[in-house]
Amino acid sequence: MVQELFLKKKLMKTDSASNIGAQLNESTAFLLEKGITSAKVDAELIFMHFLQMKRAELYLSHNMIIEEKIAVQIKNALQKRGTHYPLQYILNEVHFLNTKLYVDESVLIPRPETEFLCDMIIKEYKGQKKEISCLDIGTGSGAIAIAIKKELPQIKMDACDISDKALLTAKKNANANNVKINFFTSDLFEKVSHKYDLIISNPPYVTETEYQTLEDELKHEPKNALVSNHEGLQHIYTIIENALLYMNANAKIFIENGYQQSEKIVEFVKKHNYKSFEIIKDLCGIERFIKMEA
Questions:
Q1: What is the per-residue pLDDT for 6?
Q2: What's this model's pTM, rounded to 2 decimal places?
Q3: pLDDT in tens, 80-109
Q4: Do 104 and 223 have their domain in common?
Q5: How many whole angstroms separate alpha carbon 195 and alpha carbon 188?
Q6: Rounded to 10 degrees, what is the CA torsion of 114, 192, 237, 206?
Q7: Edge-to-edge strand list for the sheet holding 247-256
Q8: Which domain, by its residues, includes 38?
Q9: 188: Cβ contacts below 8 Å, ≥ 6 apart
């Protein structure tokens, strides 16, 4: 009964030429024509978002048409997606591990590789009951800090970013996910004043040359969160070079890096006094992370 009342507010019966099923097909064809390879899924997600439906509900309502106001919102979203504007920014949301996050152009869109990083850290610290102090460098949307804090309540989480706009988004996400995190503005370690048991960072690691060849969607994301100088390694090198000053005894640091960067990173790590280090592959077999111990 509740579902029937909900549908009546947004939908009504109509002929097959203009019902949801037909509109979905037309929307998919439109996005395909614009070169969107995920056209069918994207069209479904746009319809689901503005109609506030799950996928099953959407397909059970194929013979209905959409209220005009919502139809306009869907049309505008489809046109925007047709320009290769990121779907996540259009919907202002992304699901990341155990969290739902608000995202806009102030922050990078969290990626599956970073989910793997969080999951790896959660598994490593899951059994520990003592308080763990943690710093997330370059927090962006807050994805790493929030996902880990939700699973490891014993962590005292600090998170920093150079962008005040990004920090506003991160704070919004922390509040929405009911986690307490201390956010502050800092260019890497610039304003850091404590030592930690755990440091995590997904820093910029794309080269300027690589940036010029990125897909159109990525060009809408903040460039300073993607690109790093010195073959994409400047931020990573700066973190490695300075992190020991901010690490307690036996503390660990995890850094995400780019494709084919691990060899140079290892050579750089060997010049510093870390107790140990380990290169970790992602689910695609790419050497994606380095873990070091103080």
A1: 41
A2: 0.91
A3: 999 999 999 999 999 999 899 999 999 999
A4: yes
A5: 14
A6: 40
A7: 182-185, 155-161, 132-137, 196-201, 247-256, 287-293, 276-281
A8: 2-83
A9: 137, 138, 162, 203, 235, 238, 239, 242
